[in-house]
Write a structure and sequence with these properties.
Helices cover 46% and strands 13% of the residues. With 235 residues, the protein is an alpha/beta fold.
């Protein structure tokens, strides 16, 4: 998989934790293969988060030879509701405070919870925060709120290539390339023409090509500028 990614021109990959166990696995993979990684408790796993989550994160960082570049994937998911909503909200706020205190960027997850998500951002980060809303699939209105009110970047993946995703294509035009980074959401949401397959980093080129077509730019410019944005975001 990593060889295919390199052959496709992918230079850097970030792998994401969704609880403490998968965050440790992300660290192990990152150390072994020279990748980047993030640590966090996903809203699906919020019900099982440690009572002292900041303390757990501190211990994780203390034992890590290779430091994570972000806190994530954190947020709210009211589509599946695998964890009670109040738990999701509490765990999101706790991790957001942790990231702000340590000046770390954040990888956010938001699904069918936009109003509550924005309310927590306004309460905890009224001046904005360095982060990305991963797998953004909303329209121009939501895109502008996230970008203009909070300074967030939008993670654009394979959904951009789907026939029914015109609202998302309108959103990327509305905010412009400078606020976008590319992602895969592996192993999900493989872009056309790979739809239905297990997604992987090499497929990000299909999303880059669609983004270029949507914005009327060259694929080279899209790849170069989103790389610059992601590098600045994650340091």
């Amino acid at each position: 998989m990593l060889t295919r990614a390199r052959d496709a021109g992918v230079e850097r990959i970030m792998t994401i934790g969704t609880d403490l166990g998968t965050s440790r696995a992300a660290r192990s993979v990152a150390e072994r293969y020279g990748l980047d990684y993030a640590i966090g408790v996903h809203p699906h796993e919020a019900k099982d988060a440690p009572e002292d989550l900041p303390g757990a994160f501190d211990r994780f960082l203390a034992e890590s030879a290779k430091a994570p570049l972000a806190i994530g994937e954190i947020g709210l998911d009211y589509y599946y509701d695998h964890s009670p909503r109040e738990h999701q909200q509490q765990v999101l706020a706790t991790q957001l405070r942790y990231a702000i205190a340590r000046k770390m960027p954040v990888v956010f997850h938001q699904r069918d919870a936009f109003e509550d998500f924005v309310a927590i951002l306004r309460a905890e980060a009224p001046g904005g925060i360095r982060g990305v809303v991963h797998c953004f699939t909303g329209g121009p209105e939501h895109a502008r709120i996230l970008v203009d009110d909070f300074g967030l970047k939008l993670g654009i993946g394979g959904v951009l290539t789907f026939k029914a995703a015109q609202e998302l294509r309108d959103a990327v035009v509305a905010v412009g390339l400078e606020h976008l980074i590319l992602e895969t959401d592996c192993p999900y949401l493989a872009p056309v023409p790979h739809r239905g397959k297990r997604n992987e980093p090499a497929f990000v080129t299909a999303t880059a090509n669609m983004l270029a077509e949507t914005l009327g730019l060259s694929a080279h410019e899209v790849a170069s500028r989103t790389m610059e944005t992601a590098t600045a975001l994650f340091g």
